[in-house]
């Protein structure tokens, strides 16, 4: 089949690779209904993360099960499924604690920017719908797999509640999904930090009540002003740089909570600053599996439309243009038809 | 009056100072029923925190109100009161959010190792008992003011619940109070890390189910072993050094919570370690005011005996010996009769 391979930074190709096969009796093979490019795919693409030989890219997926290993019990060929980018067994203590992204057997999905993909730990990872959903819901269900699940986790980790005042740091696809999640969780005020008109529009559409275009000290001053000097109850840190963490710490109130989902790059936190600032923090790779049934249900009922985050659709053959468009921030998130 | 003054590191004296006076209409003057020495008093005593001129020491207190300023409404002369080491107004947004230790008007108490002391923001800070309690409860009520309140906050911030598995890092007075708090909150397993026989005994008396004397990698291995490889749901970090934070991070499970109450000294936390470890964290100066009514009630009902943490009692005149005994770890915590 033709699939996406990153050979070295900047060199991404759609090329012939071997079809995926069942390797373990707990595997499933799915035919993808669509795939997409993640902001985190840009780290190796930009050379900011090592590339040790050709990488099969793609970890967001939904589609039809075509084959299962001998031990798979929970899904069967013909079913439409969504899975998390973190593969998990589900009965281990970490999974039962709701942290499937730290599963004792955790693997990270790869090779999903392709027509077919192998999903390890299928029973623990995949959630099937009752029926094959209509095609127009595929973008929304695909979003659940990572970008929405991660934005949702940011809001969950940041303890967004009915009536909360929330700041979202980062206007990438995950940040925008964080806005949607905060609104679904009943936040009263959702302040999106964004400097880009198209992202500001989408943030408003997803539920942002205020937009702050300023950054750094000016951004902090604007948010203090909007919150009568108090700061935010919950901050969603959706970037992962030292600057974005600094912003998140500065705009959260004492006793407020920061949920962080951008992999921290060169971030070091000063103990005394956290201590005297009284910031509660939780982050990590999102345990999307915990949220999958609920989020799929919200999509199937038409309550949320996270697929709006895809603002560019390309055929898989044009995946290189998709990476370029995201790298140059011409696109928020690219969906690939496979 | 004779009171405690730190002139320079190691030079602590009981000497004549001016009697405290009402300086603001929101002040109260109390006659202390007893006072004590805090582990944090040792930082300047040891020269690990700057001493800019003579410091009036002591921030833990309970006693009888003898005078109030013109605007004080909630307490009156003759009442027995306990207050927090953080002075707070109580109606500001941070106080209402339960973080009185970040009160917009916050001051830190000082000058309580003395027969009389001024308490600023008396209405927001002090909680009176219905009657003057019997003398034998004074050590317990004094402990509420900081050492118990801080240990309690460590357990609260670490989200200890019914059935939790808890590790307490640090066998100082605060750590021991953390053990007591975890037991009161219903923890099923409380593992105290302690190398000192007398502190181990007290930890068991306060509710520890297991003692781990090992530290570093061996300590981590022992706790992993005791928790079937999972780690602790909640960790109370009651020291504040890089080593103790390292220990706390290493023994908590993914999705577990670290409550930290030791002021961090030279502690820097790596973003990726927190992220991939999925550690929830909250710390800071304890908002003891939030817990005062409940903790005083538990003491008055005889449910808890936190005063047992005082293992040396001295007259105020011998305060220098008290500091030496705590500095040399001959005493866990020293009570001063004033």
Any chance you could write out the topology, listing elements then pairs?
Two copies of one chain form a homodimer.
Chain A: E1 2-8, E2 11-16, E3 28-36, H1 42-45, E4 55-56, E5 62-68, E6 80-83, E7 86-87, H2 93-96, E8 107-108, E9 116-119, H3 122-125, E10 126-128, H4 138-157, E11 165-169, H5 173-184, E12 189-193, H6 197-206, E13 210-212, H7 216-226, E14 232-237, H8 242-251, E15 252-260, E16 268-270, H9 271-277, E17 280-283, H10 288-300, E18 312-315, H11 319-327, E19 334-337
Parallel strand pairs in A: 11-12, 11-14, 12-13, 14-15, 15-17, 18-19
Antiparallel strand pairs in A: 1-2, 1-4, 3-5, 3-9, 3-19, 5-6, 6-10, 7-8
Name its key features.
seven-stranded mixed sheet, six-stranded parallel sheet, alpha/beta, 31% helix, 338 residues, globular, Quinone Oxidoreductase, Chain A, domain 1, homodimer, Rossmann fold
Task: Describe the structure in your own words.
- The first copy, chain A, is of the alpha/beta class and 338 residues long.
- Chain A folds into 2 domains: 2-148 and 286-337, Quinone Oxidoreductase, Chain A, domain 1; 151-283, Rossmann fold (3-Layer(aba) Sandwich).
- Chain A has helices spanning 42-45, 93-96, 122-125, 138-157, 173-184, 197-206, 216-226, 242-251, 271-277, 288-300, 319-327; strands at 2-8, 11-16, 28-36, 55-56, 62-68, 80-83, 86-87, 107-108, 116-119, 126-128, 165-169, 189-193, 210-212, 232-237, 252-260, 268-270, 280-283, 312-315, 334-337.
- In chain A, the strands form 4 sheets. In chain A, strands 3, 5, 6, 9, 10, 18 and 19 form a 7-stranded mixed sheet that branches.
- In chain A, helix 4 packs across helix 5 and helix 5 (173-184) packs parallel to helix 6 (197-206).
- The radius of gyration of chain A is 19 Å and the shape is globular.
- The termini of chain A are close together.
- Chains A and B meet through strand 15, strand 16, helix 9 and strand 17 of A and strand 15, strand 16, helix 9 and strand 17 of B.
- Chains A, B: Keywords: Metal-binding, Oxidoreductase, Zinc.
- Chains A, B: Residues 10-336 form the Enoyl reductase (ER) domain.
- Chains A, B: Belongs to the zinc-containing alcohol dehydrogenase family.
């Amino acid at each position: 089949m033709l699939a996406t391979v990153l050979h070295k930074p900047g060199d991404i190709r759609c090329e012939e690779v071997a079809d995926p096969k069942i390797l373990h009796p707990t595997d499933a093979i799915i035919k993808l209904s669509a795939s997409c490019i993640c902001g985190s795919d840009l780290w190796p693409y930009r050379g900011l993360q090592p590339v040790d030989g050709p990488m099969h890219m793609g970890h967001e997926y939904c589609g039809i099960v075509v084959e299962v290993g001998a031990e798979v019990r929970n899904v069967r060929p013909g079913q439409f499924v969504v899975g998390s980018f973190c593969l998990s067994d589900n009965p281990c203590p970490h999974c039962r604690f709701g942290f499937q992204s730290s599963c004792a057997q955790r693997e990270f999905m790869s090779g999903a920017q392709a027509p077919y993909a192998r999903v390890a730990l299928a029973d623990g990872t995949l959630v099937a719908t009752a029926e094959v959903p209509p095609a127009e819901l595929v973008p929304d269900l695909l979003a659940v797999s990572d970008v929405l699940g991660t934005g949702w986790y940011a809001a969950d980790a940041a303890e967004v509640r009915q009536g909360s005042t929330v700041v979202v740091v980062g206007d990438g696809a995950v940040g925008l999904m964080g806005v949607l999640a905060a609104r679904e969780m009943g936040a009263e005020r959702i302040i999106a930090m964004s400097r880009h008109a198209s992202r500001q529009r989408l943030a408003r559409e997803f539920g942002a009540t205020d937009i702050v275009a300023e950054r750094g000290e000016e951004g902090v001053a604007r948010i203090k002003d909007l919150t009568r000097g108090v700061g935010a109850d919950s901050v969603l840190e959706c970037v992962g740089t030292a600057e974005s963490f600094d912003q998140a710490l500065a705009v959260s109130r004492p006793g407020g909570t920061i949920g962080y989902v951008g992999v921290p790059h060169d971030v070091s936190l000063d103990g005394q600053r956290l201590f005297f600032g009284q910031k509660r923090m939780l982050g990590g790779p999102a345990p999307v599996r915990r949220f999958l049934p609920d989020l799929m249900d919200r999509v199937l009922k038409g309550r949320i439309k996270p697929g709006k985050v895809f603002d560019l659709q390309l055929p898989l053959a044009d995946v290189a243009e998709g990476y370029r468009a995201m790298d140059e921030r011409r696109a928020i998130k690219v969906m690939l038809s496979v």
